[in-house]
Design brief:
Elements (H helix, E strand, L loop, with lengths): L3 E3 L2 E4 L8 E5 L5 E5 H12 L3 H6 L1 E4 L14
Parallel strand pairs: 1-3
Antiparallel strand pairs: 2-5, 3-4
Length: 75
């Protein structure tokens, strides 16, 4: 499986269970690579209470990695 390239941090319901590796490059030039399933497990309690995750089936951030993940290695 190849890495998914993105310009924003994303967690999608459609990617849960696929063990997808995502590499995001923010406008600032910083990059972050993560395993979607590990990130989902770490964030699922918060995600399941967010309107965007229920309505659009995804959570995105175009500027940075969520605070809960900043000190973790999630590959």
């Amino acid at each position: 499986m190849s890495n998914l390239q993105s310009k924003r941090f994303v967690v999608r319901k459609s990617l849960i269970g696929k063990n997808q590796i995502i590499e995001v490059t923010f406008k600032s030039g910083k990059t972050y690579t993560y395993n979607h399933d590990i990130v989902y497990e770490l964030m699922k309690d918060k995600l399941n209470t967010m309107n965007c995750f229920e309505k659009y089936k995804s959570y995105t951030s175009s500027t940075s990695v969520p605070v809960v993940l900043r000190d973790k290695v999630v590959i």
